[in-house]
Amino acid sequence: MEAARPGGLRRRARRGTVDKPLNTRLVRVATIVVAPVLLALLFSISPTGTLPPPSLDPLFNGEEAAVLATDLATNHPSRVPGTAEAQAATLWYTEAIGRLGLPTEEDVWSADIPDLGVVELRNVVTVIPGRAEEAIIVVAHRDNAGVAQPLGDNASGTAALAELARAYAEQELAPAPQPGRTLVLLSTDAGAYGGAGMRRFAERSPYAEGAIAAIVLDGIGGRGRPRLAIAGDDASSPSRVLVATASARVEEHYGRAPALPSLATQLVDLAIPFAAGEQGPLLGRGVATVTLTTRDPDDPGIPAGDTAAPLAVERFTRLGRATESLIGSVDVSAGSVFPTHDSVFFEDRAASGWTFRLTLIVAVVPFALGVLDLLVRARRRALALKPSFRALRTRLVVWLYAGLLLWVGALAGAFPTGDPLPLPPYAELVADPPLAALALLSIALALGWLVARRRIAPPYDPTPEERLAGYAAALTALVVVAVVIALARPYTLLLVLPSLYAWIWLPVQTRFWPRVAIFLAGLLGPAAGLFVLSNELGLGPTEGALFVLGLVTVGYVPVASAVLWLAWGAVAAQLAALAFGRYVPYARGAEPPAPGPVRIAVTRAAGRARARSSRERYGRRR
Q1: pLDDT score recorded for residue 614
Q2: pTM for this one?
Q3: Is residue 596 part of a domain?
C-alpha cells in the first residue's frame, strides 16, 4: 500500500500531460545542432583583400568641381523630377560634358514616382571606350527634392562626375587617355525619389550587363565623415575587395577610413531587404556597387546628400581624388574579383553570408522539433484541435482584412503608390501623415474585428485541454511561417527567431505575469528591426512604421512577404489571447460549429439569387 503523501506537496507533473505538455529536454538537446554552423560562421570571418593603388596620381581638381557644383545649385536650385528646372539641369549637365568634347546619350522615359505621379525622366550617359568591353560605371543623381529639402541635393556628386570626365577629354599636347576598361559616366534622374533612374539603367542598359563594378557619388561635398552604403534591393552585398579597396583609397586621400553601416543595420537591410542608396538596383543585378557619401555627424540618416552649408572644398577634393584613385584600381584589376555574394562587413573583416543563412535556418530546427512533439502528444490525447485552428483562421482573416484596408487606403490616396521604389525618408506619408484617412481605416478595422470576435471571445472559461489545443494550433502555424521564410528569405528569420524561442515556452507557464513577459519577449524581433530601420532613416518609431507600410503599398516589399507577416500577426494574436487569458476556441468548441455571420450572409445571398433565378425561369415558362 502506498505511503501517505505529506500535506502541501504536489505530485510532479509527468511529461506529456496537460500540466507539462512540452518536451523541454528535446528542445534543449536539439539546440546542439546549431553549434557546428555557428562555428562555421565564426571561422568564415576573414580579412578582406585590397587592390593596389594606381600608378598615376589622381588629378581631380576640387576647386573647379566646387565652382560647377555652386553654379548648378545656384542656377537650378529646385530640380524635382519632371519639372522644367529638372529639364534645365539636364541641359546644364549635357553642356558641361559637351565642353569637354565628350559625346552624351540621353535616355527619356516616363515613370510613376511615389509622391510625384507619372513624370518624364532623363538619364544622361557618357561612354569613354576602353581597351576592354567590360565596364566601370560611375553614377551621380542630378535631381533633388526641391529647395525646401536640402537632404536630396547632390550638386557635388554631379559636379564630381563632370570633373572626373575631364581626365578623359582631348588634351592639347597629347591624345585623350584611354582607360583599360570602358568607363560609363551616368547622370541619373529621380535619385532623390528612390533611384528610378538607376533602376532604369540597371534593367535596360547593355553597359549594366557587362559591368564589373560601379561607384555611386551622393553628396561627397558635405562636412560629415565619409561613409559607404552597401545594401542591395535583395539579400546581396558588394564584393569584399571593392568595399575594402574603396575604404583604403578614401583613407589614403582623406586621412580617415569611411564608416560602414553597423552590424545591426546590415542585418536588418538584408532581412527586409532595403537599400537606401542608389547602389541597390545594380547590386540586385549582380554588379558590385558601393555608394560614397558624407553625412552630418549629428544625423545618423541614410546617404543624405549635401547640406545647406557651403561645400567643404578641401574634403571635396580629397574624396574626388579617392574616387578617381578607386576607379584606377578597379580599372587594372581582374574582373573576377568582384562577386556580389551576400556578406556581413566589420571594420577590416567580413563574414560569409551563406554561413549566416545556414545558422538562421538550422536555428529553426529545435523549435520545429519541440512543436512537432507537442502536436503529436496533443493528437495522442485526442485534443480537439479543429476549433483551435478555426480560431486561428478567424484571426488570419482579420489580419488579411487589415491588409485589404491598407490596399484600399492606397487606392484612395492615403498611402503612396507607383513604381516599386524605396521611399525617401522625407516622403509625404512620413512628413504629413494622413491622419483622417488613418482614423477611418482604423474604425473600419475595429468594426471588422467586432464582427469576427463574436465566435472567439469570452465570456467562456476554456478547459486546460482547450488552451493547450490553442497553443498547439498557433505554434504549428508559426512553424509553417518560419519554414516558408527560411526557404524564401532566410535573413528575415532574424526578426522571427525571438518569437520562436520565446513563445515555445508559453504552454508550460501557468502564471499570468510570466506568460505576459514571455509573450512580449517574442515581439522583440520585429520591434528591434523597426527601431534599427527608423534610426537608419532618422525617423521616430511611428514614422518608421508608416514608412514600412508605404514600402508595402508601392510594392517595394513583395506581396508574398507582406502576407507572411500577416500570418505571423495572426499567430501572435492567438498567443496574446492565450497569454492574457482571453482565449476561447471557435464557437466554444462546438463540433460542427453553428454558422457564423459571414456564412449566414453568404447563405442568404445565395438563397436570394436562387429564388430570383427560379422566378425568372417560371416567368419565361408562363
Answers
A1: 75
A2: 0.90
A3: no
